């Protein structure tokens, strides 16, 4: 039998992307889904409609939750993505919950998120 403590330590060392890949691999191998089960009842139709609405979302806001330890790098990235000056970009980086980009496509939002995270920021797509 596997040493469970060692397995827990190894899994804890995974990055978020690696953990997501692990979930996908296990779902495929075992033929299961890691999604939370949804109770199917008379309210099933509204749940399905809400799921479709969420899937059809085409515009996203890029929200900076935290600039992280490399605030200067994050400010540089904000300035390259927007037409903001240094002071405005600095204020945005220092204000938690600032919208860096508003109503952009999924691809643009994902690209902006990856650039900001690479600079050390914590980003959420809304």
Walkthrough of the structure:
The protein has helices at 4-12, 16-30, 44-55, 71-81, 86-94, 106-118, and strands at 60-66, 98-104, 122-125. By secondary structure, the protein is an alpha+beta fold. It has two domains: 1-31; 58-125, Ribosomal Protein L30, Chain: A (2-Layer Sandwich), CATH 3.30.1390.10. The chain has a three-stranded antiparallel β-sheet with strand order 2-1-3, with helices on one face. It starts with a helix and ends with a strand.
Helix fraction, binned, reads 40-55%
Based on secondary structure, the structural category is alpha+beta
End-to-end separation: 43 Å
CATH top level class name of the largest domain: Alpha Beta
Q: Which blocks of ≥5 consecutive residues have pLDDT under 50?
A: none
CATH T-level topology of the largest domain: Ribosomal Protein L30, Chain: A
Order of helices and strands: HHHEHHEHE
Radius of gyration: 19 Å
Count of individual domains: 2
Provide mean pLDDT, rounded. 82
CATH architecture of the largest domain: 2-Layer Sandwich
Q: Which sequence of strands runs across the widest sheet?
A: 2-1-3
How many strands, what sense, and barrel or not for the largest sheet?
3 strands, antiparallel
> Which outline best applies?
flat
The helix count comes to 6
The number of E-state strands comes to 3
């Amino acid at each position: 039998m596997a040493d469970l403590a060692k397995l827990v330590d190894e899994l804890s060392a995974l990055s978020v992307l690696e953990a997501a890949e692990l979930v996908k691999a296990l779902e495929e191998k075992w033929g299961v889904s890691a999604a939370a089960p949804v109770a199917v009842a008379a309210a099933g139709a509204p749940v399905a409609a809400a799921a479709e609405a969420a899937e059809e979302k085409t515009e996203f806001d890029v929200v900076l939750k935290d600039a992280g330890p490399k605030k200067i790098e994050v400010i540089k990235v904000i300035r390259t993505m927007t037409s903001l000056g240094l002071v405005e970009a600095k204020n945005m980086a220092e204000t938690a919950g600032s919208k860096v980009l508003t109503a952009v496509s999924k691809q643009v939002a994902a690209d902006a998120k990856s650039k900001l995270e690479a600079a050390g920021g914590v980003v959420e797509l809304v």
